[in-house]
Specification:
Alpha-Beta Plaits, 5 helices, 4 strands
Length: 165
């Protein structure tokens, strides 16, 4: 990140996290900028890798997803080679919604989606326990799931420079 974020950058980020469909004109009005200045800021945030993408929230049932689960995985060994291979494997699975490499009793926490219990069982057997690097796994069904679409603002924005400065 080349340029520190100021209050307006943080406002733009928060607004887009809440509604990525805002037009540039609506976004500019909400943060008090000219449309051209707002567009330049959004382009800078994208080019600097701060805004990574824009996504649609979809009803999972419409895609045939009947259940979700968290799979905890303990690896046999903790070599970089096995870790890298397992990451690559997890990213290749269409059922994987999120991957967390964690500390504690397990090495990975994997959020998966499945059509039904049979699909989940097959996924556990075929995609996890069949892997040589996996020593142990446990599966917990998710009854309800909600994700906050807005990341918390934990840093303090830079002050906005005025012509007097």
């Amino acid at each position: 990140m080349n340029t520190p974020l100021d209050r307006i950058d943080f406002e733009i980020i928060e607004l887009l996290q809440n509604d990525a469909r805002l037009s540039n004109k609506e976004l500019a009005a909400a943060v008090g900028l000219a449309a051209s200045s707002c567009l330049a800021r959004v382009q800078r945030l994208r080019s600097e890798g701060i805004l990574l993408g824009f996504h649609a929230e979809v009803a999972l049932e419409a895609l045939g997803i009947g259940l979700q689960a968290m799979v905890t995985v303990r690896l046999r060994q903790h070599s970089r080679t096995q870790l890298k291979a397992f990451w690559k494997h997890l990213r290749s699975l269409k059922e994987v919604r999120a991957i967390y490499h964690v500390t504690g009793a397990y090495d990975f926490l994997v959020h998966v989606a499945a059509r039904d219990m049979e699909h989940l069982r097959d996924l556990a057997l075929d995609a996890f326990t069949s892997r040589a690097e996996v020593a142990h796994l446990e599966t917990s069904l998710i009854f309800e799931h909600q994700q906050n679409p807005v990341a918390p603002r934990l840093s303090v924005p830079e002050p906005i420079k005025t012509k007097k400065d």
